[in-house]
Each structure stands twice: as structure tokens, then as C-alpha cells.
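Slide 14.
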Amino acid sequence: MRKLALLAGLVAMGTVPAFAQTAPITFNARGLVAVSDADMAASAFIDGKLLRDNAVKDKLATIKFPLQRGGKTFESIIVSNSALTYSKSIAVPKNGGLAYVLDARVSPSDDVTEYKNTMQEFPEGQKLTVVDIVNLSAPKQKFAFAVGKNPTAIDINKNELMVATSEVGKELVFLEVNEDGKPTRLAHLPAQLDSTRIIDLSFHPNGNYLAVTLDQTKEVGLYRIVRDGAGKLKNIEMIGKPFKAGNNPATGKFSADGKHYFVLDTKGTVGKATGEGELMVIEFSLDGSAEHKVVSKTPVGLNPGAFAVNPEGTMIVTANVGKSAQPWTETNAGGGSSLTLLKVGADGAMTKVADYPVNGIMPQSVAFDKDGSNVAVAIYEYLDYGNRTGGIEFYSVAKGDTPALTKQPGRISVERGCHTIRVIP
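Slide 15: predicted structure.
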């Protein structure tokens, strides 16, 4: 008993080594939302073999911080979703409360076990599901409605949603929603494009512009959102011309001040690229007086799938699939995933700091917490037989002139196929 009392006194005085007081997972936010596509193994992106369990369903999980050992780590409900997108399959307002989940591709019939081309042959979806996440311990599916065939991306600006779909005449679907998530206004906006589809979109921080990535032409473009005197959307208009951006531009994000637009060049389709990806910095001419252009490129890892910018705008972390999604019979299958840490200057110029190995297959989403002190990474699955799960791994961030990432010892197990996470600060 005297030893226990002495230990308690040392803890109170702060003389016990830090590791004795540090939780296995630290993440400074109210919560996380994660979606998992259970319809196929990660390797199905490569060989088309789904390796599915028809009894396992797509899930949305809500995680509340701080975590309590012995208590329930998260709550999950069945919500249909798809990993066959470019990292923008879910939108969550900054203050949480609701989650808007796209179902780009629906579950195939139970007897389907393989496709020649997974990205092209999966049955088309068209649904947007609204989920109540006010209580992170009890998420509830509210309602769902059709937005257009194969919705590929969604983004949110206050109470406005923009959805990209592959349906002619519905390439861009604008929704104004009330506090319950119900649409109070819907508009199908002219994309002003020929024979190409929008696979990614991002609102500018001021809500008056929309950046898009185009599939077939491998271009990036910019729209101005035309508003009336009350600030309501009237229409959109293209500013300048879409322009070539790398070999295979995918997901993008604006800097917090809106001066720069970052876009991943994956160099190939998901999991199949053979050369390092790049993160591009784009300078848009918002008034149309000059041409949009790529001002710099920085190498990241092989097969990058997503990236996150810290709140200060001084660091970026990319999640790189590497060759981890290869069929398990292949050499080095399940390995090679990584994170790439980049420093960002005030002018948007990037410097690669280091690569960090990731334990898991196909990291497809990454997010900083509210003060940029920690990073969460979505893991599609692990090289595990038997009880196959996905997960969320965590890294601590060292800030300053020499930033670094340090792997945290704990992880959260979620449904297999975890592909997108969003932070509720």
C-alpha cells in the first residue's frame, strides 16, 4: 500500500515518466465519423475478386473522444456507401450534427464474386443518405434521396451542398438544406463541359467558387458561383478554361486562406500506378484576368489516395497506398503503405520532410485534429485472416521548423473497408 501511495504522489508531482501517463490514443476533437465499404477487399481494385462476406454490411461509425478503455469505443450503423470514389464520399458540417453520405456504387447481388474492372462494372448508385450524428454515441439514419447516377463527390459550404454525378443534365447538383438536413432547394447546374465527368469538387473557403477535377481530360477547372442580392445561388459560370494538371489529377483542397489549391496527381488508377505521385499547387485566377496554372509539384508516395492540410496551413500529410492493395499471393502484398509529411511555406511552396510507414492495407483518408497536434488515418483492412477489420491509426505531430510524425501505440478497429474519415472539432 505504501508503494501505491508513493506512486500516486509521484504522478501528482509529475515525476513519473511521460509514457506512464500517456493514453494509447490522443486526438484533440469531439469526434470522428468513418465510413466503411464492406462489398470488396482492397485487392479487388487490382484483380477484381471481391472476397466479400454477404453477411457483412457497409457501416458508418461515430467515435467520441476522449476514448475510455472498458467503455464502448464507437457506435456503428448500416449506411450504404462506396469506396469507388476519390475521397469525397461524405460531407460533415464544421460543427457536426449531420453526415451526408454518397452511395456512388451499390452492393452487387450476393452471387457476384468478381468483376473484370471493378471501377467500371460495379452497379451504379444514385443515393445521398443523411445521418443524425448529434449524439456520437447513437447515430441514426434519417432519410435518403436520389441525386443522380454514380455520384462521385460531395462538398459542403454552411447549409449548401454540391454533388457531382455522372448523369447527363445532373453533372452538378446543388442542394440547400435546413437544420434537419432536408433539402429546401435543389438545382441542376450546367457543367458547360463536353464528354468528360467531374470526379472531385471543392468549395472555396468564401463559398463563391468551386474547383473541379475532370476525369477523361485530366484537367482542373474553376467555376464562379453567381449569387443574388440575398446571397442565394443563382447559377455557376466557368472562369477561364480547364487546364491540364499532371498525369492523373484526383482529389483537391483549398488552403484555408483560399490563395492556393492543392491537387494530388496519382499518376494512375487506384493502386496501379508504378511511379511516385505528386502534390501540385495550383494558382487560380479568380477574376479571370490570367490563366490558371500549376506553380509547383512535390513528390509524395506511390499511389497517393488522399491528403490533409493542418489548421495553420503549414503542413500537409498524404496517405499513400503503395503496393499494399496487391493480391495476397503477390510478393510484398499488404506492405508499402506510407504517409508523406510536407512543409508548406506562406507562398504555397512545399518541401518534403519524410515518409513514414503505415501498418495496414490501402490508407485512403487522413485528417488532422482541431489544433493540428495529431493525425488520424483510415485503414481499409489489415493482412489478417479470420476476423477481417478495417481501422483508424493515429500519429502525433511535432511542430516547428523540423516537423515530424510519431506513431501512437493504439488503434480503433472498425468495419472492413474503412475509406473515408471526417473530424468533428
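Speaker note: The chain is about 5% helix and 45% strand.
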